[in-house]
Design brief:
The structure holds two protein chains of two kinds. Chain A is an alpha/beta fold. Chain A has helices at 17-26, 46-50, 95-102, 125-131, 147-152, 167-179, 195-208, 225-242, 253-259, 277-280, 283-290; strands at residues 55-66, 69-80, 84-88, 110-115, 118-119, 132-135, 213-217, 245-249, 262-267, 270-275, 294-298, 305-309. In chain A, the strands form three sheets. Chain A has a six-stranded mixed β-sheet, with helices on both faces. Chain B has helices at 16-38, 46-53, 59-94, 101-104, 106-121, 125-147, 154-178, 181-192, 200-228, 232-237, 242-264, 270-282, 289-309, 318-339; strands at 2-5, 11-14. The chains are: A alpha/beta, B mainly alpha.
């Protein structure tokens, strides 16, 4: 098969022929990136960036349910390598559920989630947490915790009983706080910060985890517009400068269209469309997904699609 | 946060303030223990007690200290330490200061088990202890099964526990009405929590249990528990096996309650109070497990000292002291939480 590309851009697959063979037969044309080291940050793989099917994280034939209530069935999803993928859709369309399944918070009733060709259900918890990070919606900052203490907790998957706080941990935490602009808040208590600052602290914690893949569940909810943009700008920077693959669930379609490099639109537990925002965000699709008539124009700032709801007649 | 690093790449982090609080509690506990050993119908000065403890005292003193008074003191220290630790575990798992074994029904379950033994079997103290262990474990399994719904949520655990406490309190009252008068008075004394007449064979099961369980909790689960403070999802995202860790922690904590109750009866409120006092002293987030353990030991031995000395020749069961102090503390806690708008 052509197009097989190793994690560092070299052709030729390494190891795990078993899994790889299965990949070949089911998803012809897929470029698997097989990282030998979970912490490998894959940089500048031209072929992978071109080919939107190139993915380290894929969901295959997923049926997702809470108790007996099925949210989505037979979902196939691939997160393109080094993309900023955004999942959009109306309330209760299953977008957060999909994110939970991709991060092993929810066990699929059927199907599997593959990370580098390996089923995440069988992976060791800490090893998975060194490759795949998640910023959940419902995190609780413990009473009386300082910013630097909270960010430091992101190092947990890299630590052990006798390796509790290495120099690496220290420098990574400092870097993460600098990258999110919370380095001067280190000794402040998390509960006395503003909503936007607090969210940046949580993102800093997720960064300290040093995962090449980072999943964010509605990172801008409950923030005012300025803080929403601040957080999204931060995500875009992490994506562009650090080459991380980001997957975010967002409510605002215009934010999604502006920041995403890959868009997944869901409705009623199905994926309705996927691709570049320019191709996906059309008036017809918005009407189909959200049931809202609208016009789509070019964003005068960025040239990305901008959805303008139709006026009441 | 401070850290000790070895050239080999190993590192251990600690909080100086938490360490200081723990050390302070240990010192307090040792002083109180020496004073407690010295009190009784044959009073001894502290220096005599210490001399006897290190094997330099005269034989009569040695008998009084080692055979009569030391078991009681060691029981107090171990029971306090066990309750302090398991209170910290419960409160962290439930994420609620009310998540202590007193309120969740485990101690009431232990009482029910012991009462069944007293009333129906009329057995000796070994049977009674066994009944307490079985009662607490059965209660634990029941609460876990009833509160389980695709995972365990702290709030549901508290509610189920409160319900279970109500049921078991009824059962206990019924059992007492069925007992004859001597059994009933023995049962009531046991249910208050008392350290009177403890011997080495009362200490042994608790000591063995703690030797196993304390390392499991402190070394095996403490770091994961700290992550679980941030919510199950956040902990799982960091690579914690949340459900497995919680089960291990709850299992260990219930066993600690059961063994403590077996040794001294259901001593009230130490498990509730110790972690809360520690949290205010250390000012550090996290479950504060080790300081809570030390604080529990210090609290109970001090309470025992008060129970023995404060009322002249009239000794009180230690549970009365912890109940009065702990109950007052609980009311204060509720009042301040309400002022802060959290209840």
């Amino acid at each position: 098969m052509s197009g097989r590309t190793g994690a560092n851009g070299l052709p030729g697959a390494r190891g795990r022929t078993d899994t790889d063979a299965r990949t070949d037969t089911t998803e012809a044309g897929t470029v698997m990136t097989t990282a030998t080291d979970a912490k490998d940050r894959v940089a500048g793989d031209g072929a992978a960036q071109q080919d939107t099917t190139a993915a380290r994280l894929t969901g295959r034939n997923l049926t997702l349910a809470y108790d007996q209530r099925t949210i989505a069935s037979e979902l196939d999803v691939a997160v393109p390598h080094q993309s900023f993928t955004v999942v959009v859709g109306p309330n209760a369309c299953g977008k957060s559920t999909l994110l939970r399944a991709l991060s092993r918070m929810l066990k699929p009733t059927r199907g599997q989630v593959l990370l580098d060709g390996e089923d995440i259900a069988g992976m060791q918890a800490k090893a998975l947490a060194r490759t795949l990070g998640l910023l959940p919606q419902s995190s609780i900052a413990p009473d009386g915790i300082t910013v630097s203490d909270l960010v430091a907790r992101g190092r947990y998957p890299h630590q052990g009983l006798l390796r509790q706080w290495s120099r690496d941990d220290e420098s990574v935490v400092a870097e993460s706080m600098a990258a999110t602009g919370v380095d001067d808040l280190g000794d402040r208590f998390v509960d006395e910060l503003s909503g936007g600052q607090r969210q940046r602290v949580w993102i800093a914690m997720a960064l300290a985890q040093q995962t090449p893949l980072l999943l964010l569940d509605e990172p801008t909810t409950y923030l005012d517009i300025a803080h929403q943009i601040e957080i999204l700008d931060l995500c875009a920077r992490l994506h562009e400068e650090e080459g991380r693959t980001l997957v975010a669930v967002l409510h605002d379609l215009n934010h999604a269209a502006r920041y995403a490099t890959h868009l997944i639109a869901m409705r009623d537990g199905r994926i309705v469309a996927r691709g570049e925002p320019r191709e996906v965000v059309t008036a017809e699709l918005v009407e189909e997904v959200f049931g809202m008539p609208c016009r789509v124009i070019d964003d005068p700032e960025t040239g990305t699609p901008l959805v303008v709801p139709a006026a009441r007649r | 946060m401070s850290v000790i690093r070895t050239p080999g790449g190993l590192s251990v982090s600690y909080r100086p303030r938490a360490l200081l609080v723990g050390a302070g509690c240990v010192v307090l506990a040792v002083v109180a223990a020496v004073l407690a050993i010295g009190s009784g119908e044959y009073p001894m000065a502290p220096d005599e007690v210490v001399r006897t403890l290190i094997g330099q005292g005269d034989p009569a003193d040695a008998f009084i200290v080692n055979e009569l008074r030391l078991p009681r003191t060691v029981t107090a220290l171990l029971v306090g330490a066990g309750l302090g630790l398991c209170g910290a575990v419960f409160q962290a798992v439930v994420r609620n200061p009310l998540g202590s074994p007193d309120i969740l029904g485990f101690t009431t379950g232990a009482s029910a088990g012991a009462l069944v033994v007293i009333v129906l079997a009329g057995g000796g103290s070994a049977f009674l202890a066994g009944g307490a262990v079985v009662g607490a474990l059965v209660t634990g399994v029941l609460i876990y099964a009833l509160a389980w719904k695709g995972g365990l949520h702290g709030f549901r655990l508290v509610l189920v526990g409160v319900g279970m406490t109500a049921i078991l309190t009824g059962v206990n009252s019924y059992l007492i009405t069925r007992a004859d008068i001597t059994d009933a008075s023995r049962a009531v004394l046991w249910m208050t929590g008392t350290l009177d007449g403890r011997g080495w064979d009362d200490v042994l099961p608790l000591a063995i249990g703690m030797a196993v369980l304390v390392p499991v909790v402190l070394l095996g689960c403490a770091r994961a528990l700290r992550m679980m403070e941030m919510g199950d999802d956040a902990a799982a995202a960091l690579g914690v096996r949340v459900e497995r860790t919680r089960l291990a922690l709850l299992g260990a904590a219930v066993l600690l309650v059961a063994l403590s109750a077996a040794a001294a009866g259901p001593v009230a409120f130490v498990a509730l109070v110790a972690p809360q006092v520690v949290r205010r002293l250390t000012k550090s987030p996290g479950p504060n497990l080790l300081p809570s353990l030390c604080m529990g030991a210090a609290l109970l031995i001090c309470a025992d000292l008060v129970a023995q000395r404060a009322f002249g020749g009239h000794q009180l069961p230690v549970g009365v002291v912890t109940g009065v102090v702990g109950g007052g503390y609980l009311v204060w806690l509720l009042a301040t939480e309400r002022k802060a708008g959290r209840i």
